[in-house]
Amino acid sequence: MKIIKIFNSILISTLILISLTFKLAYSGEIMTIKSNEARLYFGGLFPSYIFYMQGGIPEDTEAAWVDKEYWAVLEIDESSKVHGGESTIFKLKRSSKASPQPEWCVTEGGAEFAGKGPACLKTPADPKSMNQLRFKVKVQYSETAKNLPPEFQNKNWVQYEVGYDDDGVALNKLPGRLAPPNHTFGPVTLYIFK
User: Is residue 92 domain-resident?
Assistant: First the structure.
């Protein structure tokens, strides 16, 4: 009889511990940043990309805080003229002294959001003057959605595809792949899982 009571206590304790652990896996903070427009530039070698958000970003949004690779989801609003309703999974790259993440950024093209280059210019101007935030990211395949909280599982995922169709057009479905002026999209929301 004692053995059964001990077994029951161990079983109940184990179940409680497992349920608490499962809940804690998804109890982290979700940081949300919204902007009016966005761009996604290829960053040299797959899966590296540079993600820009511009317009409507609160001035008090913190910069240079990414201390590890955080999961993130880019969600493009249905009202966007291109890529409306699509979502992409990222991992944010960590900050370094030379490359803070994210970074308030002035780029070539100024307020016109021409985006003639992905570099943040070192100018005497206020880096917040364009209301543009830059993240260096690693794009992820849609099957990595299993690493996200349950409410982010069933999005309209788009991802980098390898290869070409019969007409020689790249199968890449990532936002930003279209020629200007269709390389910008938005409004967008970036969810970061801390």
Answer: yes
Q: Is 82 part of a structural domain of the chain? A: yes
By residue range, what is the domain housing residue 88?
A: 29-193
Q: Is 87 exposed, middle or buried (0-12, 13-18, 19+ CB in 10 A)?
A: buried
Q: Is residue 15 one of the residues assigned to a domain?
A: no
14-56: pLDDT as tens digits:
444 444 333 333 448 999 999 999 999 888 788 889 999 999 9
pTM score, whole prediction: 0.78
pLDDT tens string 110-121: 555 555 566 787
- The count of structural domains within the chain is 1
Whether 143 is covered by a domain: the verdict is: yes
